[in-house]
Specification:
Elements (H helix, E strand, L loop, with lengths): L2 E6 L6 H14 L4 E5 L13 E2 L6 H8 L3 H14 L1 H8 L6 E5 L4 H6 L1 H11 L3 E7 L1 H4 L2 H18 L3 E5 L7 H12 L1 H10 L10 H9 L7 E2 L8 H13 L8
Parallel strand pairs: 1-4, 1-5, 2-3, 2-4, 5-6, 6-7
Helix pairs in contact: 2-3, 3-6, 4-6, 9-10
Bound molecules: guanosine-5'-triphosphate and magnesium ion.
Magnesium ion binds next to helix 1.
Length: 255
């Protein structure tokens, strides 16, 4: 049974590049994956697309036919895609693979707030789905930025109610010290709180210990797993976490 792994995160956080890199890494381990592009507006995609929603809906056509700008057209295109969900599923269903690596549209709010995303997830099989949430290193390298990123990922979790792997994207762009701090903050809310208080740029009135405790209690506060699609690092741990979500940790690799 193929599993669906949705790559989500803010614009430019590295989703498409990670689909390519994870596909390559899985292949190097003897595991087959199938790439799916869900972005009707994608112009250049850095991997060979196996299933492409642009075969059904193209953003440029929607803009022309309905006289819309790019954002209005994305919203309409998402709804049109939902109407084609069954047909797309019929293309995916017979494919025999370990994971579908599903690349979502650049603008995270399209896939987080529109009902159409729920329709697609249901059509492709909700019980076999998980989210790979990519945190942008430019955002999470400050304590307040990391909190914002946790809140964004919490929104995605609440909307989709799916298991979740928390990824620190483009980790090669961070210094070893930055990387160490960020991972430490993601493991220990108290360490994050202390860093937040020590940061002169943080407005201290808005956030307090209770707020951070709340994030921990509701289960949205997770360890960040650093990954670099550039130097292909971190994929072993991502694979282990994904397998934990899907099969309780079973290794699919051939001996
Ligand atoms: N250094 C470095 N750059 C990366 C990495 N992953 C992605 N990038 C770069 O980040 C930029 C955005 O990457 P994409 O994969 O297009 O990001 P995306 O989230 O798919 O972007 P949209 O779909 O447009 O929102 C590109 O210039 C990539 O080359 C990485 O691991 N390391
Ligand atoms: Mg992309």
């Amino acid at each position: 049974m193929a599993r669906n792994l949705y790559f989500i995160g803010t614009a430019g956080c590295g989703k498409s590049t990670m689909v390519r890199a994870f596909h390559e890494w899985m292949a190097s381990q003897g595991l087959d994956t199938v790439t799916v592009n869900l972005d009707p507006g994608a112009e250049r995609v850095p991997y060979d697309i196996d299933v492409d929603v642009r075969d059904w809906i193209r953003l440029s056509d929607v803009m022309d036919e309905h006289g819309l700008g790019p954002n209005g057209a994305q919203v309409l295109a998402a709804d049109l895609l939902a109407m084609n969900a069954g047909e797309i599923r019929d293309v995916m269903e017979p494919i025999n693979t370990n994971y579908f690596l599903i690349d979502t549209p650049g603008q995270m709010e399209l896939f987080t707030f529109r009902e159409s995303a729920r329709v697609l997830i249901d059509a492709f099989g909700r019980e076999d789905s998980a989210l790979a949430y990519l945190n942008d290193p430019a955002l999470v390298k400050t304590p307040s930025g990391l909190i914002s990123s946790v809140l964004l990922s919490a929104t995605a979790q609440f909307r989709h109610v799916l298991p979740f792997v928390n990824i620190l994207s483009k980790s090669d762009l961070l210094s070893p010290e930055e990387l160490e701090s960020i991972v430490a903050w993601s493991l220990d809310p108290l360490a994050l709180y202390e860093a937040l208080m020590a940061d002169p740029a943080t407005p201290k009135t808005l956030l307090d210990v209770e707020f951070m405790k709340g994030m921990e209690t509701i289960g949205v506060y997770r360890k960040l797993v650093p990954v670099s699609s550039e130097v292909l690092s971190g994929f072993e741990e991502i694979y282990n976490q994904v397998q934990l979500v899907f099969e309780g940790g079973e290794d699919l690799r051939p001996d």
